[in-house]
TrEMBL record:
Localization in the cell: Membrane
A GO term for molecular function: carbohydrate:proton symporter activity
Protein name: Major facilitator superfamily (MFS) profile domain-containing protein
Coiled coil keyword on record: no
Organism of this sequence: Podila minutissima
Record's GO cellular component terms: membrane
Length: 532
């Protein structure tokens, strides 16, 4: 029984603490293992850049005399993955509710392996593209459901840090892809592209087999009405006896919250349950439609920061300056800065909170991008001359300054918006729409990833908009928009259980959310209702 004031429903601090069971190291290890799914994401988006530049691969796809892929071939090979991941992420929400979070991730690994086998076996465009589409579906499943799974099993105090671990694995995946393709790019045989592609099977096997031994999310079982299974799963994720009073109290809270939500939302069929994600008023921060739009736009804004411009195009871009002797090495350095900076976010996200993190991150990124752009239009990238057919920068130190600010920009991204967007989409949705909300948000990440990858060559190419480093004015302006966005729309979810996040969004606006403290629990509200 909870200690509560019968009139106000305010419950004692010890009851508020009971909404989550204490956690053992083994339980932490379970959560951390799941973040391994990020390796897929990073590696799969990272390796294709390297492979496309390989001589053997170019000749295989475009003919023996080709020195580069035709634009439509390159665009098809790159973008088909995003199409697969976009669809995979959308379907994943339904599968995760129907078959469970864990099963959907394991299924994603299996689908991914099939896609990788097709790509490895390919010796031409068609099979390669089909393989990438299939692998993309698998990556879509994994990328959407891992975030959902991790947010649902992680203890509240370290949930942000643990989901940031997923982002850390994304950055390691990107780095691994860069290193492996660097190692094989000069092979004059099919091993040049087959090795980097086939290696991914290893990530899928580790994640898939490992997950078979991990427990299902207890919140999934509650949604399915399987309370006893939820109890066992919760016991395992917290490292406690399933019949202990700790597990009992946490289970009660999750169950009471779900019952509360069910009372608030009408029973509907399949279409109706999708429409539920868009129900309520856009003006109300606690409505489902607002949460769905928040998740979708968070991932959109994350892509709008321009980070993938640096990861996808920095090599080409730096080549154009004539000041950098080894552009590949430079982009490897950006990738390294990304990996080494991300662990700071484990601390930032729990110390300063999600809201401040996104706010300060956007400020930092905007400043760096405007500086890069300003140097570019005055003395840097845009000012080159050609000597004996070689492009030389007029001002090498200006280009170096730009490179330094791009690296600082990556630091800001890696410590704030990179992990922050993933952390928040796992936290803002109520259980009734959580799997779909996370799926829609992840699909939005892949959609904008694709759009930005697609339009960038047109923005910077000399035969098109020819913005050169002026493109950083655009990314800077979009980051300035992220500042306003974070200030007005992003709530603080640090230190709350997912059920308390629901309560908080019901009671205060995002701007006041950082000061919000829970005063009651769903279990005690239910208790009060039953006694009334
Ligand atoms: C983004 C990716 C990006 C990566 C870089 C992720 O959070 O969603 O698009 O390439 O971070 O580390």
């Amino acid at each position: 029984m909870s200690k509560q004031d019968t009139e106000t429903g305010v419950v004692a601090a010890e009851t508020l603490d009971r909404v989550e069971a204490p956690v053992t190291w083994r339980a932490y290890a379970i959560c951390v293992f799941a973040s391994f799914g990020g390796i897929f994401f990073g590696y799969d988006s990272g390796y294709i850049g390297g492979v496309q530049g390989m001589d053997y691969f170019i000749k295989m796809i475009s003919g023996p005399d080709a020195t580069e892929l035709l634009s439509w071939q390159s665009s098809l090979i790159v973008s088909i993955l995003s199409v697969g991941t976009f669809c995979g992420a959308l379907i994943a929400g339904d599968l995760a509710d129907y078959f469970g979070r864990r099963f959907t991730i394991v299924l994603g690994c299996a689908v991914f392996i099939v896609g990788v086998i097709l790509q490895t076996a390919s010796a031409g465009l068609v099979l390669l593209v089909v393989g990438r589409a299939v692998a993309g579906l698998g990556v879509g499943f994994v990328s959407a459901v891992i975030v959902l799974y991790m947010s649902e099993i992680a203890p509240k105090k370290v949930r942000g840090a643990i989901v940031s671990g997923y982002q850390f694995c994304i950055t390691i995946g990107l780095l691994l892809a860069a290193c492996v393709t660097y190692g094989t790019e000069n092979f004059d045989n099919a091993g040049s592209y087959r090795i980097p592609i086939a290696l991914q099977i290893l990530w899928a096997l580790i994640l898939g087999i490992g997950l078979m031994f991990l427990p299902e999310s207890p919140r999934y079982f509650i949604k399915k009405g399987k309370v006893e299974e939820a109890r066992k799963a919760l016991g395992r994720v917290r490292g406690q006896d399933p019949n202990s009073h700790y597990v009992e109290a946490e289970l009660n809270e999750i169950r009471a919250n779900h019952e509360y939500e069910k009372r608030m939302t009408p029973e509907t069929g399949y279409i109706g349950s999708w429409l539920l994600c868009f129900s309520g008023s856009v003006g109300l921060a606690s409505s489902n439609v607002r949460k769905t739009l928040l998740g979708i736009s968070l991932q959109m804004m994350q892509q709008w920061t321009g980070v993938n411009f640096v990861f996808y195009y920095s090599t080409i871009f730096l080549k154009g300056t004539g000041a950098v002797s080894n552009p590949f090495l430079m982009s490897l350095i950006f990738t390294l800065v990304n990996v080494l900076s991300t662990p700071f976010s484990f601390w930032f996200v729990e110390r300063f909170g999600r809201r401040s993190m996104l706010l300060w991150g956007a400020i930092g990124m905007a400043v760096c991008e405007f500086i890069v752009a300003a140097i570019g239009v005055t003395v840097g990238f845009n000012h080159t001359h050609v000597v004996n057919g070689v492009t030389i920068a007029n001002n090498i130190s200006a280009v170096n300054a730009q490179i330094a600010f791009i690296a600082i920009y990556i630091f800001f991204f890696a410590t704030t918006w990179g992990p922050g967007a993933w952390v928040l989409i796992g936290e803002i949705f109520p259980l009734s729409i959580r799997s779909r909300g996370v799926a829609l948000s992840t699909a939005s990440n892949w959609f904008w990833n694709f759009i930005i990858g697609f339009i960038t060559p047109y923005l910077v190419g000399s035969q098109y908009a020819n913005m050169q480093s002026g493109v950083f004015f655009l990314w800077g302006a979009l980051c300035a928009l992220c500042i306003v966005y974070a200030y007005f729309l992003v709530p603080e979810t640090k230190g709350l259980t997912l059920e308390q996040v629901d309560q908080m969004l019901d009671e205060v606006s995002p701007r006041k959310s950082a000061a919000w403290k829970p005063t009651t629990t769903f279990a005690s509200m239910e208790e009060k209702q039953t006694t009334a």
